[in-house]
Amino acid sequence: MRRLSWNGNGVTKMSGSLVTAYIGLGSNLGDREAHLNRAVEMLENTSGVRVIKVSAYFNTAPVGYTEQPDFLNAVAEIETSLTAYELLGICCGIEKTLKRERIVHWGPRTIDLDILLFGNLVLNDASLTIPHPRMLEREFVLKPLNEIAPERIHPVCSKSIRELYHEFLLTVQSGPVSLKQMHLIVAADQNWAIGKKNELLIKIPEDQAFFREKTIGKVVVMGRKTLDSFPGGMPLKSRTNIVLTKNKNFQVENAIAVHSLKELMEELKNYGGRNMYVIGGGSIYQLLLPYCDTAYVTKIFHSYDADTYFTNLDQLNEWKMVSRSAEKTQSGLNYVFMKYKKQGGNRL
Question: Taking every annotated instance into account, which residue ranges of this chain make up the domain DHFR (predicted)?
Answer without folding.
Answer: 181-342
